[in-house]
Specification:
Layout: E1 2-6, H1 10-22, E2 26-30, H2 33-42, E3 47-51, H3 59-68, E4 75-79, H4 84-93, E5 97-100, H5 105-120, E6 128-130, E7 133-136, E8 141-144, E9 149-152, H6 155-166, E10 171-173, H7 174-178, H8 186-200, E11 204-207, E12 211-214
Parallel strand pairs: 1-2, 1-3, 3-4, 4-5
Antiparallel strand pairs: 6-7, 7-8, 8-9, 10-12, 11-12
Amino acid sequence: MKILLLEDDAILGESLQEYLEIEGYEVELVALGEEVFDRTFETRYDLYIFDINVPDISGLEVFRELVEAEDRTPVIYISALTDIQTITRSFNLGAIDYLKKPFDPEELLLRIRHHLRTSETPRPEVLLRYGDLSFEPTTGKVTLGEKEESLYLGEIQGKILGMLLQRQGQLVPTEELLEVLERPNLNALRVMMAKLKKKLGIDITNVRAQGYLLEKI
């Protein structure tokens, strides 16, 4: 993953660059907004991380001009500005996240990983199958058995079932499943899985401290 980091504080910028590179990302650091335009003209990036208060052009203005040039690269803002107007403007422009300085570099890493995972989540097919079970993600409809008995799942149950069906035979990490819940906690997730197993008659394996697995048929 190639990241372009706009940060005029040399110490912070170099620290973030080194931290993210240790984690396996390729990071290019620039201190001026004009440099962003030069770099993006030559190179395609997977993610932008922009400070807002930089000497020449505001990070918000940089992103606005990129959007107008039909650059769809996602951006995360890092800024000492905490006023709601600035935060609102950043999201209205299309930012995917906003971190208020000071922040722990690990928090930035977690945000990057979350958005990367979200962007790579496979789009559900029109119909997902598992043995004699079929599932329509858009409607939540589940059809079971030769008699084609049907039932409907709620939004959260449907999302969890879709994740398991899309990755049959693969472990779905606990943290990904928790993100689906309105109030994430391990007990609620266990209850949800138990309900799905009972309702649908499928065997969902709990891999302790790792996640859940739907064995491939």
